[in-house]
Design a protein that fits this description.
The protein has 192 residues and is of the alpha/beta class. It has one domain: Rossmann fold (3-Layer(aba) Sandwich), CATH 3.40.50.300. The chain has 8 helices and 5 strands; from the N terminus they run βαβαααβαβααβα. It has a 5-stranded parallel sheet with strand order 2-3-1-4-5, with helices on both faces. α1 packs across α8.
């Protein structure tokens, strides 16, 4: 099983992806961490030195590798959907979940985070709105499921995702179901 998260920077892809992987007993990987390991430096540093186009080339290589070989949960970078080949590979090779957050929700979460290169501008909220306008249709194109993040807790969002996957028949018989034993710390606590 391969579950892939897409969404704006700061929409919760890594946090929710990691929790979902834990619940399902699957390995988790963040494509940005793989990129940084491959580059040998922070994305922000590479971005500043080499530019966005070169970064997107590396990102495309990593996403191609991960979407072919990683069995588990993948959190992608916010711009992973910008190239058509990435959208095609992600959509064909896994169950893609778009964590849809409004620019205002994302801004509230990341306004003090200085590690996001695309948000190091004078007006980060305007930048998020611009990114949303461009990327929302691309996220929707690649996604099998759209989850509105709003203000629910991480646990609630993970339960919503598990229910969607279960309803769509993507959870295997040995994967914990949404109505699994609530006494277990690795299973959802919501009812069926």
């Amino acid at each position: 099983m391969r579950i892939i998260f897409v969404g704006l920077p700061g929409s919760g892809k890594t946090t929710i992806g990691r929790q979902l992987a834990r619940r399902l007993g699957l390995p988790f990987v963040d494509s940005d961490h793989v990129i940084e390991h491959r580059l040998g430096c922070a994305i922000r540093e590479f971005f500043a030195r080499e530019g966005e186009d070169r970064f997107r080339d590396i990102e495309q290589e990593v996403l191609d590798d991960l979407s072919r070989t990683h069995q588990g949960v993948i959190a992608t970078g916010g711009g992973a959907v910008l190239r058509e080949v990435n959208r095609q590979h992600l959509h064909e090779r896994g169950q893609v979940i778009y964590l849809r957050s409004t620019p205002e929700d994302v801004f509230r979460r990341v306004r003090h985070d200085h590690a996001r290169p695309l948000l190091q501008v004078d007006d980060p909220l305007k930048r998020l709105r611009d990114l949303y306008d461009i990327r929302d249709p691309l996220y929707r194109e690649v996604a099998h499921f759209v989850i509105e993040t709003g203000r629910p807790s991480v646990a609630t969002l993970v339960n919503m995702i598990l229910m969607q996957l279960e309803l769509a028949g993507h959870l295997t018989a040995n994967a914990p179901a949404v109505h699994a034993d609530p006494a277990s710390p690795l299973t959802p606590t919501a009812g069926p």
